[in-house]
Amino acid sequence: MAKKTWAQKFDERNASNPMFLVEMHKTMVFAAIRARMHATGVSQKDIAEKLDVSEAWVSKFLNREPDVRLSTLVKVAWALNCKWAVPSLEAEPPTHEHLVTPKDP
Question: Could you tell me which residues come within 8 angstroms of residue 47 by beta carbon, excluding any fewer than 6 positions away?
Fold first, then answer.
């Protein structure tokens, strides 16, 4: 039997922890938002203007200071000219391998 990697052990320990799964999904969503901003050249100022909010609000949002509502995520997706796709519900929880961290501009 092959020896388990640290990542496999980590996933096994946390797969049944709902708070871990919440934080992992938040990380995935915010990574996707930052990746889209980088790919399209959209700045925090651009998002603030389109949503009629302050740049400080956008900064706090991107730094995950508030607990974000789904309606806010949909609005930010709209500001990035994206549609919000409902995530699929899979039988298995995501693992660390689902995380992709884009480079910040």
Answer: 37, 58, 76, 79, 80
